[in-house]
Amino acid sequence: MTSEPTRLVPIPAGEFRMGSAGHYPDEGPVHVRRVEAFQIEDHPVTNRQFAAFVRDTGYVTVAERTLDPEDFPGADPADLVPGAMVFTPTSGPVDLRDWRQWWRWVPGASWRHPLGPEAGVDAERDRPEHPVVQVSFLDAAAYAEWAGRRLPTEAEFEYAARGGLEGARFAWGDDEQPGGRLMVNQWQGRFPYRNDGAAGFVGTSPVGTFPPNGFGLFDVTGNVWEWTTDYYAPRHLPPDVGERAVADGGRPSLLAAASAEPGSRMPRRVLKGGSHLCAPEYCLRYRPAARSPQAEDTAMTHIGFRCASDAVADA
């Protein structure tokens, strides 16, 4: 692996049945979606690659920036320091309806130190070929622009993740572990207090550790959630509404505003693919149809991204 942008894999145009009727409500309705030919990177952007972008541009990620007091009325100014959300295992079984029991805000956590500065993990030095994490949507979009690429739409990501398998439950078929083989980096053990590790990794794994899908793409499910350009809605939107939503006249579009979580002004985008924190009893989302909302400015230890590009015209 190098710090050069990842190899792009051409994905042919086609139609597929997007979504699922058998898991979570926001994956419906199942509908036929057409995707035009495009290209997508064969693995998530790594720490080594993101470090090259930062060195070249001097870019400062959202997690490394000082918080604006106007966005947090009533907060103690001493608490408004750069940082990010870090997964922290509990000491034992807990109510799985309350995610706040295993997520905590850690000052100083960023892509460089994904678990926080006190954890002693330097992403570029210690995990160069792991997917970069603790990156917001804004950070991912900035990298994509630098690389001369873009982020994929939700439909593009799901279509590519399916690898040509129509309606299969997983990216490789319907059997979760064919022949007893673990196919993705997912939680092993009892969530959120005991993780036995996937292929020896607790947390992220180096890109390419697990088998590729039918299109030759690695980690399209499991390992890290990945940003897409679509604004989140609790059900699939028609293609002309849900894809490539843009700001109108410099103001957030109505769709962007509607995507925000109640009580927040920050738009939410669709994450795809699931992550190493997905456990069947809590989050069976290491599937192509799975999706999750995330505020544009939020960085966490299980969110990364990969870039896409329009198809190259034939000479």
Automatic annotation (TrEMBL):
For this protein, what is any one GO molecular function term?
Answer: formylglycine-generating oxidase activity
Matching InterPro entries, A to Z? CTDL_fold, Sulfatase_Mod_Factor_Kinase, SUMF_dom, SUMF_sf
Could you tell me the superkingdom of the organism this chain comes from?
Answer: Bacteria
Which Pfam families does the UniProt record give? FGE-sulfatase
Q: Which sequence ranges form a coiled-coil region, renumbered to this chain?
A: none
Q: Which residues form the Sulfatase-modifying factor enzyme-like domain?
A: 6-308
- PANTHER family (UniProt xref): FORMYLGLYCINE-GENERATING ENZYME (PTHR23150:SF19), SULFATASE MODIFYING FACTOR 1, 2 (PTHR23150)
Q: What is this protein called?
A: Formylglycine-generating enzyme family protein
Which species is listed as the source? Herbiconiux oxytropis
